[in-house]
Every structure is written in structure tokens, then in C-alpha cells.
User: Fold this.
Amino acid sequence: MVEVAEEATYVRHHKQKLVLVLSGMRHFAADLRRERGARVDYVSLEDPGNTGSFTGELLRAVARHRPDRVVVTEPGEWRVWEMMRAWGEALEVPLEIRDDTRFLCPRSVFARWAEGRAELRMETFYRAMRRRTGFLMEGREPAGGRWNFDRDNRRRLPADHAVPRRLRFAPDAVTRGVMALVARRFPDHFGELEAFGWPVTRAEALDALRHFVEACLPAFGDYQDAMRADTPFLYHGLIAPALNLGLLDPEEVCRAAEAAYRRGGAPLNAVEGFIRQIIGWREYVRGLYWARMPDYAGTNALSAGRDLPWFYWSGETDMACLAGCVRDTRVHAHAHHIQRLMVLGNFALLAGIAPAQVEAWFLVVYADAYEWVELPNVHGMALWADGGLLGSKPYAASGAYIDRMSDYCGDCAYDVRARAGPGACPFNALYWNFLIAHEARLRHNPRLAMPYRTLARMSAARRAEITADAGRFLASLGNAPAAAPPRAP
Ligand code: SF4
Assistant:
């Protein structure tokens, strides 16, 4: 096992993400030695002689151990996949690349499913996965007679609703050591370390799963789209960092959720919504990533080219929703899916931020972000940069959506109900400006029929007012220096 500087710095990952991965590796190596009696050759980040790259360390390890073959698991990023393919030529022994068992749908199975389809819709893939895995199935039919209970999962959180206290994990001596290392070696990386509470061992990850299923899953469905400024985690799983790291297995996670439904411990809308995230969305975006890379990352269907505003790093903006989401991200290396999609992603979509810059940001800042999951979610779902391969419509929304699903607007310098003028919520003008700017491309999309009917009824003067307001706001954003490193705000 090897800790390499190149993987820690090819983008400047959030400090908590580095701690999670490095502490997880160190605990895993100790468990292998203690529980399985394995011999582990472990090269730590600061070992003298560490070359700092996968390739350099592989060649050194081969020289040390003189193996008759090298066996690796397929990686999570195209960048490393290309690196691995070059190893085949650099090594004098055979290289075997095995399927990644952190997923239920091997790349080859997804490729067969995708072959010849013009549209790769998640819902179609998800139904195939339900049949394949048997989760929430009653014979050939879905439990409850419906495949998808999403329309039951959009409730607003009442102001006096008490959310359970979430299980977090106090750093042990190993994690504290890694926190000190990260603070010293990577001081300029984005994010704070103080609130680190992610599971770093298999035992902790299982505790996190148990806590979620017992305390949070019953209400997860109802409130999965809600946002509250002072309660970042709400009922969300908080298990993606452990799942993507390999501390949890997707099958056991779904089995635990289904068992809660079968024993009457959680309603179907919650369990179906959760299982869809795991065997549907998670497997689907990963399959799509491998099926369409490397060309996928280069598309830019809406010709978005603006620089990422600096407040994505600093949180310094009068827009309370964006400031709140950046704050949660900085403190916890986490924001839940609606914060990511409908606030941070939505703003980037409406403002026309260059996809590559938005994607680099999302890859840096979240503890669960690896390119296989980050890129399709941001490029396809949030920014519609693939022109609709992944999402049937751009997820554009005005301030009304954020107001309906959160309590951000009450504390904002802007007025979410105002339609025009400098005090009006910027999401409002940006939303209509987006629809105007992309009218030729989007007005025939059936899922956007309603807003385009509204737009058609607007006077030329109102349209001109929207364009002027949006233009003024965008001009006021200022641009982040193109190659600026993320700084610790
Ligand atoms: Fe965000 Fe607009 Fe609400 Fe302010 S008023 S919090 S900018 S949606």
C-alpha cells in the first residue's frame, strides 16, 4: 500500500478528504496485519525514497518483491486507467486488472446495456438493476406496485421539526496523526479539519450504516430535498464517503435498508428512494462515465465559459443560500444532493460557468468525490454540458424553488419575491435569462413546456429587463484568477 503525493495534489483535495483516505488506508493496513496476519508493505507519504507517484512506487515495489505477476483493481478515474494501461508495457511481468467489487454492475455489463441506445436514462437502467438484484421486488413486480416513489419525497421541513443528532466519529490517535500531517503538508488546500467526523474503519462504517437505518431512514424520503441553514446533515445517509472508499459494500447497504422496510421500520418511499441512489444512480453514473470517457468530459452543449466566481472558495457572497452551502462544504467536506444540485450546481448552470472549472471544484471539495461519480453528476446532471445524454432537461430553477425547500431566503440580503431591480434574488433574473439565452435549443423540450409558455406571454420590455438585470449581476461577479489555487478562507 502506498500514499503518493501525486494523488493528494493532482487537484487540491479538501483537507478532510485527504485525512479520510490516508487514515482509512492506515487503519486498513493495521487490520490486515492484526486480523488476517497479512504482511503489508506500506509506504507512507513521508517515507524517504517515496517517489510520489503510483508508477514510481509500483516499479520500486516490483524491484523489492520480484513478483511473477501484478494484480490490481480497476481504478475510479480515467487518468489512472491510462496510467495502468501504460504499466502493462513498463512491467516485465504480466499485469492483471480486476473488476472493482465496490460496484454491483461491472463495466462490461453496463456497456452491453448501453449499446445501441440513443438515450441512457437512469430510470430504465434502475429497473433493470432492480430485476437483476431482486431488491424491493415482489416476484417480477416492484414492491408497492411502483418503481419510483420520488413524488412522495419532496416535503418541506417544518420550522419546528427536530432532526435526530447524527453519529459522528471522534478522531483516534491514527486519525489525529494524519490530521497533523495534512495540516502541515497541505496548508493551502481548501477546507477545515476541526469538524472531521467521518468513519475511517470498517467497524465505524457499519455503526454509521446502523445509525442511518435506525434513526434517519424512516424520514429520509420525506425530507430528502429539504435544506436547513443550521442543520447540514438532516436525514441524509452520510455513508457515501465510506461506500466509495470501500469500507461498506453496496449490497449490504441495500440489504440493511430493505430489511428495515420488510420489518416495518421504514416506509417504502424512503427505502425505495435510498436503494435507487445506490443500485440506480450510483451504478448508472459510474457505468456512463466508463462508457463515454474520455470524450464525455470535453462536451460543452451550452457553450458555458465564465470563470468560477471566487465565492465558491471563500463563501463571501450576499446570497445566503450559496454562502450557506459553501460554509457546510468548507466545514464538513459535505453538502447534500439538493444543496449540490439545486443551489451550487444550479447557480453555475444559470451563470454559464465553464464546466471544467465547476467539475474541478466539485472534485476538490467533497469527501465522497472521485471522478467516476463527480463528473457525470456535475457535467451531465447539474450543467447539462452533455446536451441531454444523462438528464432529460437542465435542472434550472429560480429562487422560488430554493425558498420553498429551505429557510435560506429569510436571512438573505436579496428579496426572493422581487422580480426585478438590484435587490431582487439573482436566481430569478438568471433563471429567465437562461431560458431566453437557450431558447432555440430548449424550447421544444417537453419538460420545459410550462416555463417556455410563461416566457412566450412576457412582453418585450419584461424580457429586456430580465436580460439587463442578469447582465448587470453577472458583470458584478468578477472572475477568479484562472489558475488560482484554492485557499483556506
Ligand atoms: Fe438564495 Fe435568492 Fe433565497 Fe437569497 S433570496 S437565499 S439568493 S434563493
